[in-house]
Amino acid sequence: MSYKIVREFPDDIIFQDAGLCITLYQTTHRGTAEKKKDIITYKNILEKIKTILKEKYPQEEPDRLMAPLYELNQDQDFWNHTLDGLAILANIDRCIVYKLARPVNDMFSVSKSFHLNPLLRAFQSADEYQLLGLSGKNFSLYEGNRYGLSEIEINTGIPRTIDEVLGEQHTERYLTHGSYGGTGGVSMFHGHGGKKDDVLIDLEKYFRYVDQIILENYSKNSKLPLLLVSLAENQAIFRKISNNPYLLKEGVKASYEAFGMEQLKDQAWKIFEPLYLEKTKTLVEGFINAKANGLGSDDLQNVAKAVFEKRVKTFLLEADRRLPGKYDESNGSVHSYSTMETDQGDILDDLIKALLKDKGEVIVLPKERMPSTAGVAAIYRF
């Protein structure tokens, strides 16, 4: 297989200098009835890319560049398990594929850099969250945003049920010696009460295990807010023992197994939307205050210079905005083009790449929430 399906962003391919770059975005569907249409749309996009490569870049080994894209076209298992969107980044050396949990506009680009705005928006934390579905017997973990929700595949080496974790006798042995439970932060219980007390003790032990697994293997890596969906009585027990700083105070007090995926997403977004709106409000107010004090700007030339000087603390970017041209990373200047063609560069993509390389914070906001009509707004460190 000459392509790789990945989940992490950013991937090193963004920072590689490997000549011509192909970027492809496409809305896909989870429903079986629409799969064939998705494949046809994908084929049509490939033909347009092929035409540009043959006509304008015959020296760039078009057939070799396109080979992974055509191979993906034949991967029926991939198309049977698509989500809401697809993103592909390919150069002469590598081809990576993202399954996205939000729709994207169908488009492609062929240039010296990748088009990153839609992909960045899909992976940014502004409206992303993780959801822990928890019962007294099992747990599942999901990741979502306003557009969709998808289940995270738990490593097969991680036990998930209470019986797997505590053993048939519901002993403490697994948490003490297991590969993932460990002993750090795990309290031992030795109750001698009735059956009700025994059940509570086992639940607490199991919930401590779940809390540790989620925190160490997922929350610390993603740093996303964690929404708990569980019965009220289980919520009370879990919150009492949880050490996860990303756990939201409010949760959905119901059995997660009672919801379909769409219902679960709707329930989650009811809780998370006010938090998202408050976060964006804080970002916008922060920019307005920074600009008023000379510590922020929405002037493209000034922002580009600040990126070059590594002075940008937070970079706000308008969703789907494109500015044809090039950012010169050797001196921080920008050169604009008159039109946006599929094989021309994008100043914003170049700025995103520079900021990601320096591990800067880049937030994509809808046009109506941006504090500027320029498409960019930067808050400076100094």
Helix/strand layout:
Elements: E1 4-5, E2 21-27, H1 35-56, H2 62-73, H3 76-80, E3 85-90, E4 95-100, E5 107-111, H4 117-123, E6 129-134, E7 139-144, E8 149-151, H5 162-166, H6 173-177, H7 195-222, E9 226-230, H8 232-241, E10 252-253, H9 261-292, E11 296-297, H10 300-308, E12 312-318, E13 325-328, E14 333-336, H11 347-357, E15 361-365, E16 376-380
Parallel strand pairs: 1-4, 6-9, 9-10, 12-15
Antiparallel strand pairs: 2-3, 2-5, 3-4, 6-7, 7-8, 11-16, 12-16, 13-14
Helix pairs in contact: 1-2, 7-8
Give an account of the 3D structure.
- The protein is built from eleven helices and 16 strands.
- With 382 residues, it is an alpha/beta fold.
- It folds into three domains: 120 residues, Translation, Eukaryotic Peptide Chain Release Factor Subunit 1, Chain A (2-Layer Sandwich); 147 residues, Nucleotidyltransferase, domain 5; 87 residues, Ribosomal protein L30/S12 (60s Ribosomal Protein L30, Chain: A).
- Strands 1-4-3-2-5 form a five-stranded mixed sheet, with helices on both faces. The chain has a five-stranded mixed sheet with strand order 8-7-6-9-10.
- The protein is globular.
